[in-house]
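Hi support team,

I'm opening this ticket because the web form for multi-chain structure prediction keeps timing out on my end. I have pasted the exact lines I submitted so you can reproduce it. The total is 566 residues across two entries, so I didn't expect it to be a heavy job. Is there a limit I'm missing, or should I split the entries? Thanks in advance, R.K.
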Amino acid sequence: MKILVCITHVPDTTSKIQFTDDNTKFDKTGVQFIIGPYDDYALARAVELRDQSSGSLTVLNVGEAETEPTLRKALAIGADEAIRVNSFPSDSLFVASQIAHYAKEGGYDLILMGRESIDFNGGMVHGMVAEMLGMPSVSPVMKLDLEGDVASIAREIEGGKEYLEVKLPFVAGCQEPIAEWKIPNMRGIMSARSKPLNVVDPVSDEAATKTVGYELPPAKGSVKLIDKDNVEELVNLLQNDAKVL
Amino acid sequence: MSILVYIEHTEGAIKKTSLEAVSYASALGEKEGKEVVAVALGKIEDSALAKAGSAGAKKVLHVADEKLNDGVIQAHASAVGQAFEQSGADTLVLAKSSLGDAVAARLSVKLKAGLASNVVALPEEDGGYKVRRSIYTGKAFTDTVITTDNKILAVKKNAVALKSDGADAAVETLEVALAEGDFAAKITSTDKATDEISLPEADIVVSGGRGLKGPENWNLIEDLAKAMGAATGCSKPVSDSGWRPHHEHVGQTGVKVAPSLYVAVGISGAIQHLAGVNASKYILVINKDPEAPFFKAADYGIVGDAFEILPKLTEALKAIK
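Hello R.K., no limit was hit. The queue was backed up. Here is the completed structure from your submission:
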């Protein structure tokens, strides 16, 4: 079985978000970049599935040269090879077209990625890729087991779960607890250096949106502390000041 | 031209988030001189669908095909796509949800429509069709210009004021053609806690953290939630320890909530948790550690022991009901 995992290269979840150049650019100063946390879950499950079926696992990122350490980390975690589509990921439709093209070319049976990137939070790329390839898409997936070419899936829905059966090939957006994150070990890190990382060109420049600027939300005022023995005052504030009760 | 709104329903009524999407479309329609048409799929009474009118829809197209009762993603995308073309719409508005996201993504490709997700304001026309949306899990906003003729806007929950003064909408039956391939992903069952208020859509959320010390103390959270008419949530360590089910985990990698009031009890306020709640209108923090970082993000706070405060607060709330 051939598995493709698409990963994003995003600021660490603890990063302070700031912008530069008159709020037109993300400020990378002091920011550590990581594999998208949801993508990391997809990758962890993919490693397990690959090991079960003795198939192959390719990891793909649409990004510029700076994302290569992130791809190397995915190789250290257990991917067999990496593809970097050499372009800035400016728009979800653009990214989806790249993935769809290389997924088709590689003939993958299972395409996994995170439910959403943690920078733009669109959660749209997996559905777009699936539509482009004429495959089913399922997201957010919290459990994925394979028996032959049929997957049994648990998908999170508002206030519960939905269980599905889907035949390969398909696309899934993943989240916890599909698998435990895998920390690369020394052997993985060493072998990642010699695994292939192929840089390919984007296949089109088709995009449907463009980002023109950023803004931070207004700063929060200071907290109003209420004495622990005066919950009535709190109730009064919630009722008459905030008007939320 | 018209604006089509994909509305979801549950328990025989239109979901609140979908009514927000209709309200958004209604304000957009007024601005652009377009009529708002909604489309609903699967089994629901026409009288319940007519309520979309209160939020500003003139007409609701109802595809009553029973095969659409379940939210099969491809089938819903296919049906909504046909409704879009038949109704002569150029804009699709929907609420972000587990089903809405997937449907929007597929339709973006099908309809060659630029898509903006997590939309928090009406588009501005200066320099193109510019839409403001929330990014970095609520830590920032971005302005995105949609460059295609057809457009899809996925509206973030609680970002739009609910309109509720419109007259009932006319409901029309719509027939669509569904292919076998639309049902390639088979839903075998669903497991839904229907007796509780849905966490992502709740107006008030009460969450507990490790400060509650164990699952056996959750009645304190549940009692407070009940007195407030709130849904319950929890922090990541709590769901990781199995004290509470995963779908209650609020935070960056869990459910993102945007209620009018978020109550955090015994949660220190790690940045990953804050990312899931920072769209809340008001935040109340109860924590015995005055240095808990959550106080910096809070509007109201009580420093003290949750085991002492929660029962008193619950009683005080019951007294005003």
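A quick check on our side: Residues 35 and 70 of chain A are 6 Å apart (CA to CA). Let us know if the file doesn't open in your viewer.
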